[in-house]
Queue: 4 jobs
Job 1
Amino acid sequence: MASIKMQFEVPAKMKTWSLALIAVGLVALVTGLVTKGFSADEHEQTQFWGTLMYNTIFWTLVCNAAMFFIGVTTMAMGGFQQSFRRVPEAISTMVPIFGAITFAVLMYVIFGHKHHIYHWLDTEAVAKDPILKGKSGFLNPVFFVIWTTLTIGLWSLFGWRIRKLNNEADGEPMTAEQGATFIYKNTVRAATFLVWFGLTVGSTIPWLWMMSIDPHWYSTMYSWYTFASSFVSGMSLIALWVIYLKNKGYLELTTQEHLHDIGKFMFAFSVFWTYLWFSQYMLIWYANIPEETIYFKHRVQGPYKGIFFLNLIINFLCPLLILMKRSAKRNYTLVAFMAVLILFGHWIDFYQMVMGSLSKEHVTLGWLDFGILSLFVGLMIFFVSRALASKPLIPKSHPFLKESIIHQV
Amino acid sequence: MAKKKFVVGCFEDEAVLFPAVKKVRAAGYKIHDVYTPFAVHGLDHAMGLRETSLHTAGFIYGITGTTTALSCISWILTKDWPLNIGGKPHFALPAWIPIMFELTVLFAAVGMVLTFCYLCQLAPGVKKHHFHARATDDLFVMAIECTDTTNTDDLQAFLQSNGAIELSVQVAEEGWWFGRYDNENVPFQNKEIVAA
């Protein structure tokens, strides 16, 4: 492997750009905090904290989806991802960082008693409301804080354990026995992560963090819908980093064949997202019960109409029609373009999921949203590039690496 | 269909087969087909086969299904026989999407199976020539089409030098036909058992 570049070095230009994005984001954050966050107007406050909420939640879930990808492919005894597995690993190092920001924002909302965001925080209203009373075992500050702490803490811990174990793959070549033990340990750690992932992203966390903004409304599809959204965005983020590294001449062992598989994930999970979107929408549309349709009323017929249908076009029609062809999934430029489009589309999706419930009368999408987005993109680029540079790019002693080298679809 | 002459070389290992395929093509011979006991990755590239158009056909069948479902159901429920179902609008698109989806899948699936059979020249009752019975078991069988000027002895020697373990020259009908086996090429010989 003499000719293969094992070590990524962060280009100065990338560092400058990420710092510039962070600076823009910080300006937006401070301006937002002064003009809206500390404003006397409840609407402005709600808009500010809501914007922070959906951005942190989105980016935490997207980065966590990278670890989910590693976990799932490990459990499936997959080999193809080994040549670029340091990329999802590096992305998943963002979970503790974004997780901490999410935690801070959510704790501020809970302890700042922002009942305009979480209506169930208002104890007087809950006492008079039989529906909220019935849900108070789940929707109460104590459970919220404990479960959120556990969730973010264990995502970070289990992810860190998987990454740490994989440092062994940088060492000397393993014997067959060592390799078998290594794979077994990987499987156990991936399984632990996945069980916790299922209990959180697959069920409780989206209900708790986002669906409880509409505390009277519920949908069992909601968590899976959020998961699909975050996983397809996570795959897009992995694709973007892989393409970037390929462009810079790294990741020589990753070829069009691997890109094709990443593209398939992006295509398949876009369709999966649509399936869940439709499953949620059609049942509510068909039953036409006011307590259920209230969620869609202002989204389909109100001010969010444009965003609602834009969401479907970007996240379903575009991936379906553009990524369907084999040659499209093997084209670096097209996959990069679609990855950006999908990330943007699901960011918009998270926007309407949170802000659609917080600001029902008018769409608030504006400088604050894009400013905060730039903050998070900047942070992501800054820390992921650092994480990539901290380790060899290819786990040279991984028992399945050869499978990845000869991978062909 | 016209009968053609083939030189058939059998290989025991795909690692031997790959360079042989490349050399045969480089020497200018036309490979009719390579029969393998399992799907061999990359063999299609080595043989220079063009990408299948099956998926394009599938897409066309699929949108045909979608269009059929949408036009049929919208005509029925808005023009021909409008019904009030639970106060829903006559043009109730969300309710039709499952049906449109099902018809898309049905058209695409059935159409692609039929197209696949046509492309592989398979149909009930169709007989095909077997170049070597062990191609379904453990042997990689390469059939090379001969022209009028092909020297079969040279070609066989060439294949042997490239690792073929078994060689033969066979005359077979190309393509497909109904209802009969070539008697010389029965894959399993029914030997008469004489009672002692």
Note: The interface with chain A takes residues 41-42, 51, 55, 59, 86-88, 94-95, 97-98 of chain B (CB under 8 Å).
Job 2
Amino acid sequence: MTPARDVLQPLLCVNAHVSTPIVQADALRKTYGRGETVVTALDGVSVDFAAGELAAIMGPSGSGKSTLMHCVAGLDRPDSGTVTIDGVETGSLDDKRLTELRRDRIGFVFQAFNLLPVLTAEENILLPLTIAGRKPDPEWLESLIATVGLGDRRDHRPSELSGGQQQRVAVARALASRPAVIFADEPTGNLDSRSSEEVLELLRRSVDEFGQTVVMVTHDAHSASYADRLVLLKDGAIVHDGPAGGSDAVHERLRQITDPEADAAGTVARDPRT
Amino acid sequence: MRVLLLRSLRERFRRTVLTSLAVVIGVALISGTLIFTDTISRSFDEIGEVSYRGVAVAVTPAVPIGTPSSEGSDDDRGLPKDTVDRVAGAPGVRIAVGQVSGPAIIYRKDGRTRVGGQGPPTQLISALPPGVGGVTYTSGRGPTGPDEVVFDTATAERAGVRVGDTVVVQGEGPRRRLRLVGTAGLGEIGSFGPRPTVIATQATAADLLGREDRRYWSQVLALSAAGTRDEQVAADVRRVAGDGATVRTGEDQGARQSKEIKDRISFLPTILLVFAGIATFVGAFLIFNTFTITMAQRQREFALLRALGAARGQVRAMVAAEAFTVGLLGATLGLVAGFVVAPALRALIKAFGVDLPATATVFSGRTILVGFVVGMAVTAAASLLPARRATRVAPVEALRDAAAPPGRGAVPRGPVIAGAVIGVVGVVGLGLSLAGTVTDDTGTAFAGGGAGLLFLAATLISPVLVGPIARLLGRPLQRLFGLPGRLAQDNAARQPGRTAITSSALMIGLALVVFATVFAAGLRETLRGDIERVVAAPVVVQASGGSFSGVPTSVVGAVRRAPGVQSAGGVGFSRVAVGGRRASLTIFDAEALRTGLVRLQRTDGGGRAGDPGVGRAYVTDTVADSLGARAGRTLIARGTNGEDHLLRIVGIVQGSASAVSGVVVNGETAAEFGTTQPFFVVADGSREAVQRALSRDYPATEALTRGDWITDQTGQVNQLLGLVYALLGLSVLVALFGIVNTLTLSIQERIRELGLLRAVGATRAQVRRMVLLEAVITALLGALLGAGLGFVLAAAVGATLDGFALSIPIGQIALLIVLTGALGVVAAIRPARRAAKVEVLEAIAGE
């Protein structure tokens, strides 16, 4: 953590929207395929994410939301455009530097298969630190384990944990290295509603209590209602960017962009799974 | 289903080939051995046939009862010189010719550089008239004058001598300088078999070999008049040939000669097939493991088929057809590869000094049959269990989420208990054989079977050991390499069954390597101990390079005359038959025993044994027990010359497997039994003086100090060990393919884990290191188990040998273990590279 952020943190928590961005994406373009079958996944997307905000990215299937997240998170490279994370421009990094950036500055929560089955819950949480060969701060570890509510299960292996518990461990792992930003890709996609609530609560608290920045891709309006900000994508472009509001408001936004009446160019079938 | 099968095979082409490779290597070794041994067998048949082409009757010295003809004692026997005339006088005989043959040593022109020397001893034969005996001259002509000689083509080539060059030949008699006038071979074979062969005129050969009229001819050949039957002529010749002669038709004699040689090397196919069998056995592990893993990975595919209405039998048939294809592919490629293996085996044997003849390659129907049967049977057996498991899948599995690879698999108890039971059976079988309760072929079968069961038991039990040993090895790796070390340890232990079988394949190879190493070290130490106890002489003279052909008898006198030498004596080994049973004959010159150059310990309370005297003998304790012999009794013993002599036992001496065994007599007594040539000569004085005294007349002998000589003797064990290593190396190679295969499959299974690791910041180097270390753990697991098992086996076998000194070559074993770990790294290079190449996005988006 940079000293600047230490000082700024209290401010950021209170007034997230006016702070300097932690993640900046500028004019990202990405196409797949060639010739006739070319698909434009990102069509010049520019978006910033500020420190201490929980942003939700939504959009119908094929809107480019996953591609956007992969490019911004350094898992994929855009065809053009730049991504800057915590002041580092990722386009110029080689594989090793990019890997180190992911290790030290970025946290990940995936939809499934977040944990290594051979490691215990605690070892999984500490994985990014262990990879980097760093010693964990014991106090920080204790507060993490307390926050995710896994005190008595820290020595269990993933196969002995419920789906919700596994995702909470994944969130704790993402928090462990105090990254600049956490990317969560459908973090509740595989969970029942009670477990989903727990995981979303956890993400919310990490923003409110630790000043963490979280960018979450989701298809679920209810999940998006936990966010401070809602970014809507369609056909590789941002069609809405503003406060998230409640679950109903998110629904309304979504309905607008997927409604055949509102979009004569073509209907995008809504697939609730993707 | 057929379409599905073909698609599935094509999709998994690389894996199918890799799995087949295990079958290929096994079948290639087996078919290679069969091709090789069929070929040399045919060559010997041809040699036997050509040697007696046109010969109606062959007369040879009778083989003494109790001395099997294969013991190679032809050289000591002979027919009286007048046999030729008697045979020629028999009805139906047109011409009778005699041939002289015996061992000789050949040198290049300088008279010092020995030709051959290693491998089978050189034979000197006398030339036969044209048209008899099948010798063809490939260059030059046959010997006609007293100073002419012919070499066989291969020997001439190896010696680098040409027609017109001068060479030196020495037999039992005086050395002579002869001129090479030609090179020769038998018929179209161009070789006389593995023994280097030189041909001289009859008079020259007899002179070189020191023949006397009483025992002159090695064989007498008769050509028949037209219109006679060979059998009839043989019967007529038998009437005139005399008591000490055996008469056979030429055809019989040829067949017999080839059979004798084949019997003498009959151990070779057996040994080679045993090693081929081991490699195939190891290959079965690889196939089993590959099928088990791929079947597990395809659970959903099978479940889907079942859900769509495929009957259990159809799924099973598909899996069986895949196994069939692997077996068929492997066996076919293996048979083809056998053609490469056969000459390679010949080259390997040649590298150890035996040049076996090979005419046109013999590829018999039996080779094809055995190759296919073994290839298919091994594949079928190894895939049976995985196939059954695959077909038990319930259709509902198709609807479940992709089964994530387990975090840590439990070890099923059943196989472990079965392993323990099999282990006990194996120990009992091995024990019965080693304790001598069951003997001969049954005993060998019990020992081999027992050892095989022990390996199986160790394999079944080893999954239990995977966890603890992985932790033991993992801890230092974790300290050294951090996370990759930790994950490697966990990955190795997560499916103990899989890791266990992978490392078991290596365990078998390594157990045998360690067995051979420990056993050889024990043998070396035993040999050293035995020799040190018996030979006290400061100087020992032997044939240069430790050749097993011994030294000329006259060397003893030459050594004795050397300045500074007070006493010297020859030491030799031969055989006698006592009461129809074979016994070793150990020969020490009286002077050596009297002066303490060699020391024999009496076990019947007489201190050191001196010269037993002519017609008298000591017996070793074991012979005393088996013959019920005591001091004062008299034995009737028959020597290699077929003569019976009385031997009065004067005492019992301590025996040892390698230096003193059977019946011990002095040189004069031994001469009565037809043995005069010593193996080595012991003397006092200084090595340098002895060497100088010998250098002119006996350039092919070398004088060594006692220490050097003992080291030289014990070193011969190493050469044998080298051959065993070379043959076992192939089993280890198969086992390494197993590591490659298992790792490749495991990585495919864990692709999402690898992606996750990369996503949360593990570098490619860290991922690579993780896979390499997992391979190291697997390899070391096999190495440790194998080393333990091999050591126990060696100790068990050694314990049954009289006076076997078990020694632990710790350094060598440690080196083998480290080497195995390193080989594990080599095996993991490709899988590790693949693992490191995994793209994060593909891995997490996969499925």
Note: Chain B touches chain A at residues 404-408, 482-483, 486-487, 490-491, 494, 752-753, 756-764, 766, 840-841, 844 (CB under 8 Å).
Job 3
Amino acid sequence: MAKSLFDKIWDAHVVKTAPGGLDIVYIDRHLIHEVTSPQAFDELEARQLPLYRPNRILATADHNVPTRNQHLPIEEPLSRSQVDKLTANCEKYGVELYGLGHARQGIVHVIGPELGLTLPGATIVCGDSHTSTHGAFGAVAFGIGTSQVAQVMATQCLLLSRPKRMRITVDGELRRGVTAKDLILYIISQLGTGGATGYFVEYAGSAVRGLSMEGRMTVCNMSIEMGARGGLIAPDATTFAYVEGRAFAPKGVVWEQAVAYWKTLYSDDDTVFDAEHHFNARDIAPMITYGTNPGMGIALNGNIPSEVAASESESFDKSLAYMGFQRGESLLGKEINYVFIGSCTNSRIEDLRAVAAYVQGKQKAKHVEAIIVPGSKQVEQQAISEGLDKILAEAGFELREPGCSACLAMNEDKIPAGAYCVATSNRNFEGRQGPGSRTLLASPLVAAITAVQGRIVDITQYLN
Amino acid sequence: MEKFQTLHSSAVPLPLENIDTDQIIPARFLKATTRKGFGENLFRDWRCNADGTPKPDFVLNDARYSGQILLAGKNFGCGSSREHAAWALYDAGFRVVISSYFADIFRGNALNTGLLPLQVTDAELSSLFALVEQDADTQFIVNLPEQTLHVPATNQTIHFDIDPYKKECLINGYDDIDFLVSQKPAIEAYEQRRTWAW
């Protein structure tokens, strides 16, 4: 019988089906960080359980770490205590930790792929909803809660119901200035913030296959923003070329065997999906969000909707009031105070290169504060070796040290109340970047152009 | 995990859609390393001004409304996977959230916390909001073994679905970890037969 990519991977990881129909699913890779792991380690402690497979876990500190002076002790006591707790737990249980100062430290969803830990056909979990990022490699990857983090620590397994399958096909060629970020913001704006709840999404079509691995990661990363359990893309030559030679990737004969298996990971021709959506790449323009969930997105030169369903009216108006916008208006010309380029969505070397290529020889607007937070130490080092740090500094952008930073503002990197920030991150929820902050999500290219212009512009007129 | 069987309570209405976990518990309050105390910051930025004083128009500050049931608009708990959102609701005294659908990760986290995510239809949810709007003291009886939500005032009974395994877990106070640990021999056998683990 024809099988989807998702089902091929899921079936290969079912230890057994429990009475009642839930599957016991084996987890190949477990990524942990300082915020959602301490209570899970406590759970093991309280139940006197050992960590079952320490070599399948990798830890890093990313969510609340400062992005300046990482060589100094963390000033904020609660953040320091969480990071210290992670260090102590990893030592006690024998978990590999790439903590602050380590050459491999970074945002958990950036370092997994760059180290070759993220592989096609694998099951990958982390106590973080953006774990869907790893699906870009043809892995089944999804975010879990802390109780489940403890379950994986104790047994390397989770008890799960099989989600429904959705395929989103985007065919055609993306227009100039339209990036992977615009593609996913467009899809979410069409399906809505809960439009894929209950589903695991496969992205397909020529526009998706044409994306780089960085672009595919951006797309899969935001699957959760339409409620999907995860998102994935069939592995292909682009995938194998990215993975080959990375630190933890298979080598030699094992690599050959792995690739032979990975080439079988695609949805069979006759696969029937529970839901299908088709989009044309030519219909996608550079995007921006105007509201307080990622589904509230429009083309840069479009208008905020005037009409919404009656049931959504109260939430919609609350959202616009928070943002200081009106129904039906255009965002063009709106002054922006901050530009944040970073997060597990858009902080990879390709993103930094795109920003540097645009801002080279230009200056950010005087009233804009522009910060760039690389996704990892490796991205930071690569940027420096390519001279991007100098280009960015000359344009008035501040290149920080790696972490989640102003995406969720657990550290000092906060947007003040009432200020507008064009951000390359993934969530524009109320207060996400700090109490009262107003976030407009966009691509790194849109963010770079906004920083230089100091206001929202139709970027198609400003492309180099 | 505490057992859950039945609950007789009034409800607190929050008729907004797409309430994300950043609103339920903002990220800056996720720095505790235990499960306790998150209730203090439940809906912090909707409940309090920047200086910590209460916002009088928010429902949790409205003396008319109380109870262990939160009645919320559809797509409740979207966004971040933070289980702290379920812990915060539980810590603040809630035992049931009623909505017309829940984000997947939140649903799982709630069940693992002993908080019942009770899903009704859009039409049923509208009728429940209307009842509470008319009378803030409207009582509800949640019966998990029977899978019913009963409103004595109107004699209305709504049947709800729940995964049978998760239902047994809630009723008995079990969690998945107990079951999974009991499956160790099967897990070890799986590891043995798997030939392609890189």
Note: The longest helix of chain B spans residues 122-134.
Job 4
Amino acid sequence: MEFRFTEEQQMIRETAEAFLREQSDAAAVRRAMATEQGFEAALWDELAGNMGWSAMHIPEEFGGLGLGAVELVALMEEMGKRLLCAPFFSSVCLGATAILCAGSEAQKTALLPGIAAGTARAALGWMGAGRDWSPSGVALACARHGDGWRLHGESHYVVDGHTADLLVLAARLPGEGLRLFALPADTAGLTRTWLPTMDQTRKLATLTLDGVQLGNDALLGLDEDAAEALQKALDIATIALAAEQSGVAQQVLEMAVAYTKERHQFGRSIASFQAIKHKAADMMLKAEASRSAAYYAACVADEALRGGAAGAELAQAASLAKASCSETAFFNAGSAIQMYGGVGFTWEYDVHLYFKRARASEAFLGAPAWHRERIAQELGL
Amino acid sequence: MKLQFSEEDERFRREIAGWLADNLVGEFAPLRFRGGPGDEHMYPEERKHWERRMAAGGWTCIGWPQEFGGRGASIEQQVIFHEEYARAGGPGRMGHIGEGLAGPTIIAFGTDEQKARLLPGILAGTELWCQGYSEPAAGSDLAAVKTRARLDAATGRWLITGQKVWTSLAHESDWCFVIARTDPESIGHAGLGFFLVRVRQPGVTVRPIEQMTGTSEFNEVFFDDAVCESGDMLGKPGEGWKIGMALLGFERGVSTLGQQMLFQNELDEIVRIARENGAGKDPDIRQRIADAWIGLRIMRYSAMRMLSGGADGSLAREAMSYKLYWAIWHRNLGKLAMDVLGPEAEIAESAPYGLSRLQSLFLFTRADTIYGGTNQIQRNIIAERALGMPKEPRR
């Protein structure tokens, strides 16, 4: 049984842990989150350019390192622990994965090396204004127009959509399903609006497309329904997000335990009270369970990326991991505030940053109930 | 990181699955899916016979080292064994306390003479064991045991007096291992001994406890100058706590992982009923079934993580949360079963109090979060040992 990180994967993980502890400390997170851009260029250049993180799951022939989803998940877990403010989830997990799942060889060759090197940052837009995170929720419209395409409408909740260089957008072709397009951020007719968010550590934008005209080369893959490719990309990104949530869950557990050990009331450390210990034990129980779910899902995503047999479980793996990790991250972050007591409610202490990230990620790409319903359907209910 | 078992392990899986398919037939066919938790009182004679069939096939004590008659099976293979056993509907094992608890403890702490004399009966499925730990005043606080052991200087025998409780299978057993106080002045962990006592003797009385299920798997066992022969103490006086705790380490080990297949059988039945009776259209039931499915899958991957953790067979720190996780999951499953059945959940199978499998599940799972360390004790263990939070004040 080798359901554990290999030595190489463990090394990636430890390197990330050490790097982020230094570079994504509370001061760095608070600096980045206060800006509209949401990240510091120097840090991004370091982790994407020098450390090669954005190249992790991109195949070597497209300028990547040719590793897989397990490595991606290992990084995301560490990023979650430190609330890294960087366009990694948007550009690598969502953008690059969508291109990997939908693009032609020529498009992958053209688009992925820049993302892998961190010199181009991608973002993926597919949501309409509603609550449907699946491909059926795409509201942006496209139509054939001469030799190319015309896009009209809005794409909502686009992570880092206001700062990305390259936008991958899903659009609905009436009666013919979905199409995915890749377009530069400076395309005429495209307006990008940054939205202030409750979780300031991850930035969202609305994209408005007013009759945007694109050549046929902007269409990712063939002129056929892209719903399946989009779903696959979303499921892989969902697994990456779940791993990040499990990192959040673990970190707030450790923070809260450390705090309660230091905090004295009634003449003893409050960590010695069973009321506190049992809360911490429940947090650990959930954190361990969610980590198991995220690692399993990573193995499935790995197979899905490589076209292996177990990749058929991708949808249920994504839903299992997302439902579990979302609940755990929110439960643990909420419990941590309670364990900190009054100071947990202050801006000064960092626990609210984790609580807000947990809330935002819980909803993003589908809340637990939505994913459980997807599983119920898979079970034939 | 990979999810698969090795090819060698898969060969082992085919071997045990094939043996079970060939042997769990004929006279043993009625035992399929019987005798598990909540049903342990069923078919005792047939299940003893089945133990001997297992032994003849070389399928008892597979995790023991080869020098003591086992197969020296790896942890992976032991899990596979338990999985396939449950998948095939293998009956609740009458010999599991000897195989999983008494045997490994004798191997770890016994003399060569004790090993040579006591292990073969466990291997052969002919000598059954039960566990004498808890007492009426020593439950979660096990170190509060009051049962006394007095050395008879003339014969070298120990004479045991006291009461044990919650003793599974005592009425079917040949042996009981007993933690008792050798030093009457002692309190707490000190002054305890670990005794191997024959159940069938005048000084031992077994009285079944009628449970809320109407059935009796657990017993009270009374010792009234019961004899422990001079060579049947394990370790020395004062070592009882150390040996007793080591034994609990075996209990929390690999055998609990195989139960997931039993859980899968139960969940499958609940899903089937929900599809048939329309409960599966209820949004709340759909959510809870999906949640149960997620929880069971997580148990599997957690088990696989634990198995991948240490090559020495020890389970990782994270394994401490496993009992708490499955106990809560299983208790919720019992309630879910009732809610899926709806009004039919109330109707028993037969008078006067013959419960269905799912009714027994519902009631018996209330014990899951109590025995083997209550949820509250488990949370203490997790907080103190895994998270390093300060210990409770203890004697």
Note: DSSP finds eleven helices and eight strands in chain B.
